[in-house]
Amino acid sequence: MSNIVEELTKPYMKQAVVNVRSGDTVRVHQKIKEGNKERVQVFQGLVIKTSKKGSHLSRITVRRIASGIGVEKSFLMHSPLIVKVEVTKRSKVRRNYLSYMRQRTGKSARLANVSFDKSVNEIPEEKEKDENLETAKAEQPAVKAEVSNKPDQAEPKATTTEKVKKD
What we know:
Elements (H helix, E strand, L loop, with lengths): L1 H8 L15 E10 L2 E15 L7 E8 L2 E8 L5 E10 L21 E2 L9 H26 L10 H7 L1
Antiparallel strand pairs: 1-2, 1-5, 2-3, 3-4, 5-6
């Protein structure tokens, strides 16, 4: 039964998703449609809850303080509306659900930072694209060198001031 469910949900899952944990400070880039226009809106805050990590229903709840009011948004990680999730800071926490952060303000709301590898934000697909770009750039200088060895056949173009002086 579970194999059937996995086969049905597989096409809806993204190939690679950033590993996000509770206690991370993240920037979530989300597509917003307003009429015919589409834009990307960024929501930055603390991840207070993660759920169903391995599933296509994996979800994070992000909390931030906006104009003195706590705002929480829940994001489906495999949603096509989520463009990118960046982990900006990682903190040491011992729980998955940080509900106690709702009552904390000021200095008591701070969490202890932990150093982490920034490559967490890089998705393997993007790495492959970068490698392809690097190989393409390596080939381009050879083409430019061939072009620069050819004698200049065209005359240099006259600027607008030179055209005026000629007339």
